Predict the structure.
Amino acid sequence: FHIGEREEKCIIEDIPSDTLVVGNYKVQRWDIHKHEFLESAPGLGMFVTVTSPSGEVLLSKLYGPQGTFSFTSYLSGEHIICFQSNSTRFAVIAGSKLRIHLDIRVGEHFLDESAIQAKDKVNEVNVRLEHLIEQIHHVTKEQDYEREREEKFRKTSEETNSNILWWAIVQTLILISVGIWQIKSLRDFFISKKLV
């Protein structure tokens, strides 16, 4: 994504509780003379701030032009991850565009292939098996989180349907009572005018 040099950009990630999140990013600065993004942005860093659904700041740190950040979610819900450059240029001068390449991995632990190749076959199978078990635990945790969200949504839907039903009943009672009142008023009017 692209941001201005002094602009803050936030993304929202819906993350289950007790889940490791690892993010890798790289910043490129727009070169006015070459009309392209430079491969690196020396001297430019990024403030990375992560806020939990309860508003607690889980991470607030300055990194370089490229880096890796990680945090563990303690609550399930929408976590806000914000990026802002550490540019000290004035807002009028700081008109450069920045391109940020971002890769966020939620709950996954990637295998180090070079370490696996250095071990014998039995250890390789053991490490891969442990990795699969970790992935199974992550998938189970993700499913539990989705079930919890679905149950919350179902309760909200049922409450809304119940409210709509009661509102319809109240409207019907009001309509019937107004109809009865109109009939009585018309009957009394006709009797008083001696038309009936």
The first helix runs from residue 113 to 118. The chain is about 40% helix and 35% strand.
